Amino acid sequence: MNWNSNLMAGRTFGSAGRRALVVVLVCAGLAIWLHSGDTPAVMANSIALVLMAIGFWGLGVLSEALTGLLFLLGATLLLQLEPAVVFSGFTTTAFWLIFAGAVLSASATRTGLSDWLAAHSVGGIFASTGYGMRVAIVVTFSAGLALILPSTLGRVAILLPLVIALCDQFGYQSGGKGRTGLVLAAAVGTYIVPITFLPANLPNIVLAGSLESIYGITPTFGAYLVLHFPVIGLVKGVALVLIVNALFREAPAPATQHDEGHIEPLSGSGQRLLFVLVATLALWSVDFLHGISPAWVGLGAAILCLMPFMGIIDFKEMPLHSIFPMLLYIGAVLGIGAVMTHSGAGEALSRLIVSNLPLADTGNLMRLLLLTAVATLTSLATTMPVAPAMTAPFFADIAISTGWTIEAVGMSQVLGYATPLLPYQLPPLMLALAMTGISMRDATRVLLWLAAVTTPVTLIAAHFWWQVLGWY
């Protein structure tokens, strides 16, 4: 038995080692090539280091947290950037909102609030439908929540325990295909559809803020929704339901089917947590009035849950074995944007891409395709929240080349932000994976299938829809 285990471990290590060697050689070759030209050393090394981290994450060479630590160490030693820059991901509001979400999710599970909410919300509808309809309900509910809660991380923190409770009630067991599909439907659905709402996702906020601060253009909720929801949100939402149903459809375990006649009353700790969540949701929903970041509202709620006098959850009951590596990974991912920005690599990469696009000598459909590719490639290098800030300074130059308005150029980027290819691009999705144990491989399958199936449809539909609305 031990010999077989050692043999399997050796094969796994050998496979990971080969993948690591390929990634390292490719990135080293890229760095050498960039050094041979006029690229500054810190910029060349930054691009190579970021691509190596992305390669390790995408191919699963090492654990996400360990790869993140290697990236942080490399950025500090090789690039010689200030630690305040390299480790800036740990000081962002997104990082602390993820921490708060982890505490709130663990609290909802511990107090039984998630089970109670599942039984009193969509539990009855779930009982009379099949797997495909259950996926559709989860995606619809996840997207609709964005209308009252503008933080994707906050939505994931609330959705996860609810979806897991539904899975437990209806027999979708931990590690099974059915549960994996429903969790991914919630985590991906609450980003991919609300990307067409303002201000439901961080990339939307960054894009709108960049347009306003640089060009004095303020996108409105109605115009943004009409432009994007029919050709992006609706198409990708329907496709997500079909893809998850095709990949993860599974019959629930008969022995654990939901008993509608027996619903446990909500405990005292659950009632206190419900009050905290309602107050948190209310404060999140009206942040435009009080001006307090959703991160600090969430952190305050998390601290309140951890207070001994509340009796909701103790630090000893927190699943630190999953939360700590997840936080290390998220901090490293959020630091990518800062490293790319301060080294100049982000701006150089964006300028290189934009300057080599044949925008002046092609039609509007091809321009839309090229600009979508710009957003997609930039977000691969810098993650979704950072990408709009990298490309926004070049919107005016692109507008001159295309003959479009600056606002139309900015709106074209939404098609790219709505097409994540790898999980690390979306910190909220990584939170969901870390809290549920779902593999990067399953999440990547969903994202790649979603991109492959919907990109041709959304591009062509957006092209004709923009013509109808007169955006060209």
Order of helices and strands: HHHHHHHHHHHHHHHHHHHHHHH
Number of helices: 23
Q: What structural class should be given to the helix and strand makeup?
A: mainly alpha
Give the DSSP E fraction (strand runs of 2 or more residues): under 5%
Largest sheet: none
- Mean pLDDT comes to 84
Number of strands: 0
Give the overall shape, derived from the CA principal axes.
globular
Give the end-to-end Cα distance, rounded to a whole number of Å: 67 Å
Helix share, percent: over 70%
The low-pLDDT segments are 1-10, 255-261
For the CA atoms, what is the radius of gyration? Answer: 23 Å
Summary tags:
472 residues; 23 helices; disordered N terminus; globular; mainly alpha
Notes on the protein architecture:
- By secondary structure, this protein is mainly alpha-helical.
- It has a domain at 91-320.
- Helices cover 74% and strands 0% of the residues.
- The chain has 23 helices and no strands.
- It has helices at residues 2-36, 41-59, 64-77, 83-86, 93-111, 113-120, 123-127, 131-144, 152-169, 177-192, 202-215, 221-248, 268-285, 287-290, 294-306, 320-342, 345-355, 364-382, 387-391, 395-402, 406-417, 427-436, 440-469.
- α5 runs antiparallel to α16 and α20 (395-402) crosses α21.
- The protein is globular, with a radius of gyration of 23 Å.
